Amino acid sequence: MKATERETPDAHFTVDKQNISLWPREPPPKTGSSLVLKKPLTVRVAVICLLLVLVTSIVLQAIFYPWLMGTISDVKTNTQVLEGRVDNISTFGSEIQKNNQGIETAGIQIQILKTSVEKANVQIQNLTRSWEGVDHLNAQIPELKRDFDKASALNAKVRGLQSSLENISNLLKGQSKSLRK
């Protein structure tokens, strides 16, 4: 019986919105399905992914557009500031050259001053030596004064002796005259 049952055509029917359809063993055709749903599963997944990427891109652009514009504005402002600084740096270059010339001149003047200071130091050393000599002489002044006082006393004694000798000489002359007579 089973063999006979298979050979006999079966009739299937469904009621769909009050329509009656008969069809062979294949499944009934789906009515009202979209073209996307009729495609294979990989195509549907690819379309869904593309739609998700598109929606995400639009949402991200809506979110990040103001931030991106602010960043671009900041970059433009920074560019202008850097251009100003580059201009300043180029003017600083000429000022640096002028300053370098001034530094070279100052270096020459410093060398001249060093030479003058060295000469002054030599003169100061000479004056210090001379001053030491003066101090030594000043230390000798009291001794010289004592010697001078002694010399003056001796000189007074010598004069006294001279006057005594003259007196003696005069006496002797007087006695020698009287003896000659």
Layout of secondary structure:
Elements: H1 2-7, E1 12-16, E2 19-23, H2 35-38, H3 41-180
Antiparallel strand pairs: 1-2
Pfam families: Lectin_C
Organism: Castor canadensis (American beaver)
Keywords: Disulfide bond, Lectin
Provide a descriptive summary of the structure in words:
Strands 1-2 form a two-stranded antiparallel ribbon. The protein has helices spanning 2-7, 35-38, 41-180; strands at 12-16, 19-23. The protein is mainly α and 181 residues long. The protein is built from three helices and two strands; from the N terminus they run H-E-E-H-H. Strand 1 and strand 2 (19-23) form a beta hairpin. It has one domain (2-29, 39-180). The chain is rod-shaped. 83% of the residues lie in helices and 6% in strands. The model has no long low-confidence stretch (mean pLDDT 81).
